[in-house]
Description:
The chain has helices spanning 13-22, 33-50, 62-66, 78-84, 87-97, 171-182, 238-247, and strands at residues 24-27, 68-71, 101-112, 119-122, 135-141, 152-155, 188-190, 198-202, 207-209, 218-227, 264-267. With 268 residues, it is an alpha+beta fold. The chain has a domain at 13-121 and 134-156 and 190-229: Jelly Rolls (Sandwich), CATH 2.60.120.620.
Amino acid sequence: MKSLLNETYQLPVEAIEFYQKNRYIKLKNVLDAETLAYYGEAITRKVNEINKQDKPLDQRDTYGKAFLQIFNLWREDETCKEFVLSKRLGQIAAELMQADGARLYHDQALFKEAGGGITPWHADQYYWPLSTDKTVTAWIPLQPVPLEMGPLEFSAGSHAIVEGRELAISDDSEQKIQQKLRVTDFKHVIEPYDLGEVSFHSGWVFHRAGANNTDQIRKVMTMIYMDRDMILKEPENENQKKDWEVWCPGAKVGEVIDTYLNPVIYSK
Length: 268
């Protein structure tokens, strides 16, 4: 089908400036309804096929209640691959990072079930063995996300805070980071998402999501991008060691992460 996935998105200079200051941005009309319906169906089908979560919600921990999480769908399905390797989304990522190109770190579907719990405050890059902060995650709802469905929330500009970066997603991170943000001037942004609206956030900006208080699944696809020339750093925690093995197999510390799992999606 013809879609917007490989067409250029006109990103205003003001948008890049906003992102550089706040390290998140929400952009309207990035994708159209037809594209989201077509690829959303393929993503949903694959998530349902791969998902092995069989514990009832009330028997899971906070992380388990937050979402069903399925990784690297681009390796599992050709239609999902077209979506994940979209030049349009890679172009936006590269321009926001102010990099010469965007390389895939990995993708992940994040489906928050009806009645699913909060996603605690956290910063993604705690998990990543990456040498710079030129990283960006595209958060792409496959349907509109009203407030009661648990849209992504941001603490604008909070990439400046170092305290809390060492916390994995947990009850502890929710409590400690919330406490820290409460005594700062960073704006807490909670807004619904229209269909076709996509947000982009950097690896060190703090973010969370509320519970899904509807009877529908909140279906979101995400892609994590890094600078095309990103260097692998020596891991600083066990999670970063695991990420190196799983998402950057064969990459060497001090060299560009150029593996079969990390294709360049867009170059200027």
